[in-house]
Every structure is written in C-alpha cells, then in structure tokens.
Amino acid sequence: MSDFLKVAIETAREAGAILREGYGRPKEITYKGEVDLVTESDRRSEELVVARLRRHFPDHGIVAEEGGGAAGAKYCWHVDPLDGTTNFAHGYPCFAVSIGLVEDGRPIAGVVFNPVYNELFAAARGEGAYLNETRIHVSPVEKLATSLVATGFPTHLRKSSSNIHYYWQFTLRTHGVRRDGAAALDLCSVACGRFDAYWEFGLKSWDTAAGIVIVEEAGGSITDITGQPYRLGGPSLLASNGRIHGEMQEVAASVAERAAKGD
C-alpha cells in the first residue's frame, strides 16, 4: 500500500470519528446560499483533514469543499469532509468523508469512509479496490432491465435541472432508481456491486475524485453521460459496472434528443 493511501485512510478514520461524534448531537447548521447546508462537523472534519495532509505532504495542493487549501501542484488532494451533509443534518445515516488524490488531473488514490456503518472504501491505481480490506468488484449484471441504478439532484437550481427526465426514463427501464444523497458513497456502491450504475450532473471534484479510482479499480467504467472521457468537475458523470454502460448511454442520448426537440 502506498504512503498516500495509508495517510488518507488514517485521516479519513480520524475525520469520521468527528462526524460520528456529531451525528448523535444537536446540529449547528448554517447555509451556503438558500438551501446548501453546512454544519459545525463539516468544518471540524475539514480542518482536521487539511491539517493532516499539509503535515504529511506539504508540497501537495488541496481542494476542499468548505474552502480549505488550494490547487496548482502536480499532486492535489480533493476533499469532501462531509459528503451527504443534508443526510447528516436530518439524521439519515448515509454520509461519509471522501479524500481523493489526483496526479496531473488523474485520480490515483481514494478513500471514502462512512463512520456510522464503519465502511471504509479504498483504492490506489493498479492495486485494486477494497471495502474494509476485502477486495471488491462491480456487479455481473448484463442488462439495464435487471439493474438497480442511482442518481442525485442538486440542492440549488432544482427547477432548471433536467435530471428528472433521465430519472423517469431510467425508472421505467430498470429495477429502480435510488437517490441516497451522497455522491461518493453512490460511486462506492457501484464499485462493490450494490448499484449497477450511477449518473449525476454538476458534481464537483471533491464529490468524485476518490470514488472514480475506487470504481475503476473495482472493474467499472467512468465517462460522462455521452460516453466521452470524464474530467473532474465536468457537467455530467456516468459510472457503471461496464456491462450496461452502453445501454445507459443510449437511454441518456434519447432523453437529451427529446429535450432538444422540446418534447
């Protein structure tokens, strides 16, 4: 295991302990804009993660959701100190710490830790993906019709989001669509075979940097919704077990075509 991954795992567990402690207590909630929640646990978790990464890797860049650190180096950490803040604030146990390392724009290591269930997903490029030290793989499902997929919706500009049309079509063509509200964990669920695919629009780099490498090391596929290479912070993301990736793209393309025609 690389030193990068070891430090990320240790740091995620420490930050997760902060979240677990705050989970059972009254929440101090503020807002970024009208609907984006921020809790005191977000800030405490980020402060710890940024401090640990700076201490171990002073030459690395850091991009964090609540504003800690800066980008620009060959190696850059992308940190979501509390992925699923709304879930956390409402007592729904689907949230995590997400820490991803990117080299020259390509994710090379990632850790996602859900402290409520003590599930730690980790991967480094070329070393496989793991859940609590057990190797994981994407699902063997071959057809969209027998798949379980997931998506998410933005907390802001919801009326202008076109994803409801994709949600409708994928609901009709699969066993179901889940919306758990934590992008990093959704990607990990694809990696370990709980979901067969996941798509979303407008995700930030800290939402996906860790999950991308975990999915790919588990044998999955990552592109944008049209099948083009995904770039961190890009407008759309499609992750799957690889087997239903083409069908997902075909459905997405048909939705986009109807939308363009105004249907």
Describe this structure in words.
The mean pLDDT is 91. The strands form three sheets. A seven-stranded mixed beta sheet has the order 3-4-5-6-7-8-9. It has a five-stranded mixed beta sheet with strand order 11-10-12-14-13, sandwiched between helices. A two-stranded antiparallel sheet has the order 1-2. It is 36% helix and 26% strand. The protein contains seven helices and 14 strands. The protein has helices at 3-23, 40-56, 85-90, 163-173, 183-191, 205-217, 245-261; strands at 29-32, 36-39, 61-64, 75-83, 96-103, 106-114, 119-124, 129-131, 134-135, 148-151, 176-178, 197-201, 221-223, 236-240. It is of the alpha+beta class and 263 residues long. It folds into two domains: 3-135, 2-Layer Sandwich (Fructose-1,6-Bisphosphatase, Chain A, domain 1), CATH 3.30.540; 144-261, D-Maltodextrin-Binding Protein, domain 2. The radius of gyration is 18 Å and the shape is globular.
Please outline the major beta sheet.
Answer: 7 strands, mixed
The level of helicity is 25-40%
CA distance, first residue to last residue: 51 Å
- % residues in beta strands: 25-35%
**For the record, what is the CATH homologous superfamily label of the largest domain?**
Fructose-1,6-Bisphosphatase, subunit A, domain 1
CATH architecture of the largest domain: 2-Layer Sandwich
Q: Class by helix and strand content?
A: alpha+beta
